[in-house]
């Protein structure tokens, strides 16, 4: 694999303990965090309480309760300070329907700063005040602090740059997320033979085959050449099974009595959690499995009867890696069995900075718009940044890490337009997030203990061929273990 042209990179040696640095690949963005925990001793018995947090022109509200004297919310609000430089006061209003119950005011110059890994700020009780500053009945438990996107509260927060998005479900769709792919195994089914089958029509030679179903995967053997009640197949069927093996393997022996007409002779159901696992080249023992047949008795009642046996070798193959992506762009080549996996050789850190000149993907209020987010996949870990609302030049400034086990792997980063906002995913709608473009980065082209900063053109497939659109900026470091 050739190294990328040197002029494309702004790299430099990294010093210090790289594994303990926090968000050092992205721009540190200052946020004002407000955690609204709960309230007590509110006046009146018929309150429908909620809290409005306001900073300048931006405001966020908690969930609404009906007739609750001591509500609990435990919701976090994050206000980006680069848009509110002239604001000096934070206002937290306790409301009943649209009427004010009381408020708590904070001077931004007196709000403490928190830098992880410092412990989270402990919430405190604050007495509510009226518009003139006099104390009124009721208290509100709050924690207010200055932090950055490295704060643990960042992913769960309501963000001021998404103020136009309403509804709890919509807010979930714009937050950053981390997914882990399920562990995949090859399920090898060696169908050997069956014994003493009981065909429905004994006046003919049976033409039997085996059908195996695992989830939405279906495989069948050939019709046995020995057209007897003791057929022989000796065929291999290979499935891909995902932990935690919730779906059983369903096997049925079927007789082809006529063209397009098959009759089930017997069936068995096998739960994968009880199947042996093979980790090396040694052969696995075969077993006989009972076949059953469901028979209708007296027109209504159903009975299960023994319908002979089938001989199979059945096991989960853990010595191989199940390829769930193209081999040339794979981010993981480890075998499935944990016992066979090697130790990690380093850490991959990715800072997703921004994109410029994205294509408009939708129309809002008669103008072109894009609600963009990024997805990065490496190994079994997927990450999704938060969605930046209504911007053709979004800034994410989010950083993620992966363990590296093989340098001959690839990290894939895609940019998407979020369609699940403003009613795009209402029942009956089939909208899907639109792909804007993607880039792939080969780790074999990177040096360890070095940080690279680069703007990539996004590649998108169109009817006229591959087209380069926009610019996507990232910083990336491949760090060896010390």
Automatic annotation (TrEMBL):
Keywords: Membrane, Repeat, Transmembrane, Transmembrane helix
Domain C2, residue spans: 13-126, 166-289, 329-456
Location within or outside the cell: Membrane
PROSITE patterns membership: C2
GO CC annotations on file: membrane
Similarity remark: Belongs to the MCTP family.
Protein name stated in the entry: C2 domain-containing protein
